[in-house]
Model the fold of this input.
Amino acid sequence: MTKFEFTLIESGRKAKCAPNPDFPHGMSIDAGFKEMCIVDVPYPSDGCGVLRVDCPKCGIKVGYTVAGRIDDVRRVTLPCKQPHNQQIREPRRLPYGSE
Ligand SMILES: [Zn+2]
Done:
């Protein structure tokens, strides 16, 4: 069983503006890779900064901006380092649950 690691790198700031109303239950980020892992991350974040997601299988580390609000990322894709792994489209931000 693959276990992802999550590390919050706090910026020391607080979110100043209101959450984006397009993402009332969080955001899914689809990075558009042909071969990838889909990971549910801690939501909402405990603070404002960057959430780093580490894949224990291939070692890739990917950072996502978080603000401790309802529009934080909730599900992300990791472009795992595998042979023939290619990006096939632009990254997309989707409301959580709509993907
Ligand atoms: Zn991986």
About this structure: The chain has a mean pLDDT of 91. The pocket of zinc ion is lined by residues 37, 55, 57-58, 60, 78, 80 (CB under 6 Å). Residues 5-10+24-94 form one domain.
